[in-house]
Design goal:
Shape: elongated
Radius of gyration: 17 Å
Low-confidence stretches: none
Number of helices: 2
Mean pLDDT: 76
Structural class: mainly alpha
Organism: Uncinula necator (Grape powdery mildew)
Number of strands: 0
Largest sheet: none
Distance between the termini: 40 Å
Protein name: Putative eka-like protein
Order of helices and strands: HH
């Protein structure tokens, strides 16, 4: 087993499948003072968490492709479009929280 300091695998929650640690306050599937979420709520939370995790993976892959294209930009004067990651993740979390609150 390798150490956590050098782990290159993306962080994934064991409760909801989102891009955060299991003990994070962001996790909608963690137990609260009111108790644990119901099975129906967990199903929806896990779907949303998985969508959020996949979005983060796609964003990281796009960043890597952009950095590779920047290395080849000596030949081409065009610059790749820069995406603001904070706005993408924030909207995803807000949508997820909104879905969970409707239950």
């Amino acid at each position: 087993m390798h150490s956590e300091d050098f782990c290159m695998a993306p962080t994934k929650c064991r409760n909801c499948g989102g891009p955060h640690r299991s003990d994070s306050r962001k996790c909608l599937a963690r137990a609260t003072r009111n108790g644990a979420p119901t099975k129906e709520q967990l199903k929806i939370i896990r779907l949303a968490g998985d969508r959020e995790f996949q979005a983060v993976l796609r964003a990281k892959a796009a960043e890597e492709r952009a950095s590779v294209l920047e290395g080849n930009s000596d030949e081409e004067p065009s610059q790749p479009e820069v995406v603001d990651m904070e706005n993408i993740q924030a909207s995803s979390v807000e949508d997820t929280a909104g879905d969970a609150m409707r239950l």
